[in-house]
What does this fold into?
Amino acid sequence: MWDKQLDSLEVSYATLMTAREEGRVEGRVEGREEVQISSARNFLRSGFPPAVIAENLNLPLERVLQLQSELTANP
It folds into this structure.
């Protein structure tokens, strides 16, 4: 009986630790994306061409163009 409960607790703990690590990885990815978007906005404000920004920040050109449209609409 105790063995089954212990096994269940070990599985639960392993699941929680996996979820925790996945959350950390996801948070780091989101943080990098936020930095890329912020940098793209700054480069657009400085007059850099969208294609150059997209290439150098590894962002899709469509996303950079969307940011450019947003900046134009809300200066």
Remarks:
- Residues 47-75 form one domain.
- DSSP finds three helices and no strands in the chain.
- The first helix runs from residue 2 to 45.
